[in-house]
Structures
1.
Amino acid sequence: MEAEDPLFIMYTSGSTGKPKGIVHTIGGYLLYSYITFKYLFNYTDGDVFFSTADLGWMAAHTFTVYGSLANGCSIVLFEGTPTHPNPGHIWHIIDKWRVNIFNTAPTLIRSLMKFGDQYVKQYSRQTLKVLGTAGEPINPEAWLWFWEVVGDRRCPVVDNYWQTETGGPMLTCLPGATPMKPGSATLPFFGVIPAILDSEGRELEGPAVGQLVMKNPWPGIARTIDGKHQLYEMTYFHKFRGYYCTGDGVQRDADGYY
């Protein structure tokens, strides 16, 4: 296959409610999933990866399938309800299969928090080295519980922002390298150049709140919307000419963290 041949089409509605068939290609997507998995989770040979992401989501395509397997990583696949037969089931899986990297969503973290710490602490979790969270902004309270209770304050929490269209993380903490901040996706990944625009398309400097855009392409960027290339151009590149428009709002603080 050629690098720019289509690899898969993933349907996403975003906020429109009308599914769009996002097309990712073989070379760029595979490179981006490989390299983001490797550096986001500090992958080393022999690590075991476990993500609760549904395989129909981009997070599972990139990390549970393509990125992990491209790195030669062993993966744990789980089908069921995380709280059945009890709210400690996730931590049981981690101990049983000696999981090193655990990736989940803020929604699950918050749902397990409400059952208390005892379901976590009855398992050792000593094999864990990195915790990941993505899918939506994480509130600081959930971040701190993930860090203090699940990771025993020794496992870096990798909070990362991305979209079906980006193919992989764009803003992310790097474990052991980026000073963490509860509730923040921290800094851009290698080669990613974000910017914040106001409603008129003017670029904002320093601490700011506005529209999140990207100033240059990256390997994992979606190449088109299946059968609707004009819609692709209009959706992502027309509102702010010269930028990839995420459609998301963002805040940048005094430390440059997003």
Note: The chain has one domain: 6-192.
2.
Amino acid sequence: RGTPREPGARWTELGCQSCTCQGGRVLCDTVSCSVPCSHPLPAPPGGCCPTCTGCLHEGVARAEGDVFSPSDGNCTVCVCLAGNVSCLSPECPPGSCPSPSPADCCSCTPEKCNFRGRAYAHGARFSLDGDDCTTCVCQGGEVQCSFTPCPTLDCPQHRRHLGPGQCCSTCRDPPAPAGCFLDDNGVEFPVGQIWSPGDPCELCICQADGSVSCQRTDCVETCPYPIRIPGQCCPDCSAGCTYMGRIFSNNETFPSALDPCLSCICLVR
């Protein structure tokens, strides 16, 4: 980089690279930092390794010998020495107290709770007399009660049911359908009823689950001049012939409407 180096010389490049001149070649490697403390300060500007001349605790830089209290410590005292943070908490005498004490360095915890004429140990859980849906707990000399949590139901209100001795409601099964109700005309058909919805070639049946199943009729018999009977699905080829708007019976002869010299006859085929 334009600077002569003597053989065996060592120096530090930007990016914390430690370089040495050996046999006319430059060999570089990342600087290895040995940090002998628990809470070192970040490397100073232009430096590569953290320093133990102070402490970094909970994101706050502390000077050497600084005495402080942590954010969540109750009367805990900490000191910064050579990059290490040492904390001391006060020793509280064992024992209990008759009632909760205000928050201080050595707050006591009551041993029991007196509730409705009965004594409960600290941390005990119990239910109210005759009410298994309420759970109570003794905490710090006080009793806290709460209802048993119930699952969320996915049924409407009119289908919810609370049985005897139950804490939470359950969903009742919907009643079995007695028939099929059609919204378009307001007619209800009993299960098994067969009807035509208006098209004589379509028949519907009311299923046991309240659904409607419909199916169309396929007409197999065909002829060129069938008789169509109102209300009947398939044309009738055996009753006669329909010709130019007129109905003729079987074996009946009649003049052609296109040529008066032609005579026609209705034949069943």
Note: The two ends are 111 Å apart (CA to CA).
